Amino acid sequence: MTSPSAAPVRARAVVLGDYGIVRAQSLALTDRLSDAEATVQSMEDASPAKWHLAHTTWFFETFVLVPHASDYGLFDKAYGYLFNSYYDAVGERHPRPRRGMLARPSLEDVRCYRAHVDAAMETLLAGDVAPELAALIELGLHHEQQHQELLLTDLLHLFAQNPLEPAFAIATPLEMKGSPTKEARWISFEGGIVSIGAAGTGDAFHFDCEGPRHKALIQPFELADRAVTNREWLAFMEAGGYTDPLYWLSDGFAVVQREGWEAPLYWMQRDGVWWSMTLRGAQPVHLDAPVAHISFYEADAYASWAGARLPTEVEWEVAAQAVSVEGNFVSSTMLRPRPQMATADDQGTQGPIGLFGDVWEWTASPFTSYPGFKVAAGAVGEYNGKFMNGQMVLRGGSCVTSAGHMRASYRNFFHPDKRWQFSGLRLAR
Predict the structure, then answer these.
(1) What pLDDT score does 172 carry?
(2) Coil, strand or helix at 327
């Protein structure tokens, strides 16, 4: 999260403007959901939509209102147990795998809970807000944007389990502007000592795990100008990529055999044509769109099959530092990856495209701390540091990420076998 010294410049703008916008965005995502759809939990990794709405509200109640609003009254004292996620320092919590058993409180009750907390927050924000408190509120807003993305990916997984194949949004043709790129080009980058990570100064937000900014040594490398497409992934499948152990890490091949993976998550064949479940219902796989819903193990195996490798997160960030944070984010309302279009700059040269949006891109880097990283004091110190073990870094955001939430230094992370996120890959060598 931001350091206290980074907050004063935009503290008022954040707490008075962004708060209401972000909170309204979360509610809008559940406008068309029934209480049942908002309650069901499709697997242990996912959470009900209702729980996401309540947990993000619990964050502001627990870390902002209770310590800083002397006249605040809890909406329901039981909610602290129900909607704590993983903050051991705060107290006991309802088991994660059983979140879908919470038939009550109802979705309407949760909306009332949000209204109660928002009213108290508005009162708090109407007064003077100290820089340290503004920084904490800004962390809470970015935390909520993370849960907005999780809410959508969790709903997709839930709807994919339903034989009726319900859609979150109306099915519409995939928007195309121009022609998709054909063969991927390789873009060269020089080696040397580079600086990566969030600077930790000024008014730009970042999570604690994005810093400190530091120097790293890289060798000269090449990066594909776009993400791997469904067409290219289909060639990997048809070449027996899922059955040849030569391409796979040992743990990955064991997962493939145990789970019976033969294609990305949500893919299915109908009359010889590959379809995929999307937030807009079941649709034919668009061959020129980036492949999505693959694990790190699959991404690494594909790279081996293609005679390449995954980029390290240092290489990825070096490539992204000179690229504008623009792409197919949730604001586009596509809600799925779309073909990445090549564009040239004023000099007629072409850099990497699609680094931001569409799909999170797996890297070859484990999620560990940067040199000089220190866990924040208090319960919020449990935000990222405690997960720096056994997970791999992804970069760039996806088609369900908030655009204002993304930056070149952003580090997402998941265990290497997870596939329900919009995760894809880009090759390096």
Answers:
(1) 77
(2) coil
User: Cβ distance 398 to 193 under 8 Å?
Assistant: no
Backbone angles phi, psi at 210, to 5 degrees: -85, -5
Which of the listed CATH numbers 1.25.40, 1.20.120, 1.10.3660, 3.40.50 matches domain 4-160?
Answer: 1.20.120
Higher pLDDT, 345 or 119: 119
Contacts of 101 (CB under 8 A, 6+ apart): 41
Q: How far apart are CA 233 and CA 104, in angstroms?
A: 43
Burial class (CB in 10 A: 0-12, 13-18, 19+), 135: buried
Query: Which of 189-198, 248-257, 319-328, 341-350 is the least confident region?
Result: 341-350
Q: Tell me the per-residue pLDDT of 410-423, one tens digit each, with 9 for 90 and over.
A: 999 999 999 999 99
CATH 1.20.1290.10 fits 186-424, yes or no: no
Angle formed by the axes of helices 296-305 and 250-259, nearest 10°:
110
Residue 61 DSSP code? I
The full set of domain ranges for the chain reads: 4-160, 186-424
Question: From CA 334, how far away is CA 154, in angstroms rounded?
Answer: 17
Q: Average pLDDT, stretch 322-341?
A: 93
